[in-house]
Amino acid sequence: MNKVVVPISGGIDSTVLLHHAVKSRDFDEVHAISFNYGQRHDKELSYAQRAATSLDVTHKIIDLEFFKHINTSSLTNSDIDVAKTRDVLGDAQTVNYVPFRNQMMLSICCAIAESLGANTVYHGAAQVDTQAGFWDGSNEFMAAINSLTSLNRKHRIKIEAPLIEKSKKEIILWGDDLDVNFRDTWTCYEGKDKACGECTACSSRLQGFIDAGYRDPLEYSKEIPWDTLV
């Protein structure tokens, strides 16, 4: 049986990837994994659960609260303000980056994959991650981590990133084709009642919808002049 492990955060990229894994029929079993790593808010975990439930996919949340001790990121240290796009233009690696997060989480996904007899782990890295300075979402990172996992002598697992060359516009259009309900995705780093519309995650999401010619169904705390944008 072909099985895949898909880490999901509740955002657009991982939700689209989960829909692809289920609807492509490339896999007999799809297993969704989310991580509680002491992040700034838990809204993303509830949105991840929505995605898994809507697709009738097994979903497990792994506790990694030790990440709170990695306190140089705004996502794990509430004393650090979330970086707004206007303040970090040209920054090679913003405070929204969590050190070595993807490497550790993907290693755990590979361990789970081995225990399930799965040969594939998906990584939701997209084009915008490299642009935002997240080295653990780059092609170089993918080559390196796959080189490492290939040392496994009995169970070969391939980490794949189907979105890594895709822009946010392309991902949104693909998600539309897959019937993704974007209202049930959460991107904002702040985690308040409404998305802030100003953090780096919100900015890339908004630009993606504008480029795709669609109105984002998510509510924002700032006014978005959609009538003039799409």
By oligomeric state, this entry counts as: single chain
Q: In angstroms, what separates the terminal alpha carbons?
A: 44 Å
Summed over residues and divided by their number, the pLDDT gives a mean of 93
Strand content: 5-15%
Task: Write out the strand line-up for the largest beta sheet, numbering strands in chain order.
Answer: 3-2-1-4-5
Rg result: 17 Å
Q: How many strands appear in the DSSP assignment?
A: 5
Summarize, please.
The protein is an alpha/beta fold and 230 residues long. It is built from eight helices and five strands; from the N terminus they run βαβαβαβααβααα.
Notes on the structure:
The protein is α/β, with parallel strands linked by helices. It is 36% helix and 11% strand. The chain contains eight helices and five strands, in the order E-H-E-H-E-H-E-H-H-E-H-H-H. It has helices spanning 12-23, 43-54, 101-116, 127-131, 139-149, 168-177, 200-212, 226-229, and strands at 3-7, 29-36, 58-63, 120-122, 158-160. A five-stranded parallel sheet has the order 3-2-1-4-5, sandwiched between helices. Strand 1, helix 1 and strand 2 form a beta-alpha-beta unit. Helix 1 packs across helix 6 and helix 6 (168-177) packs across helix 7 (200-212). It is globular, with a radius of gyration of 17 Å. The model has no long low-confidence stretch (mean pLDDT 93).
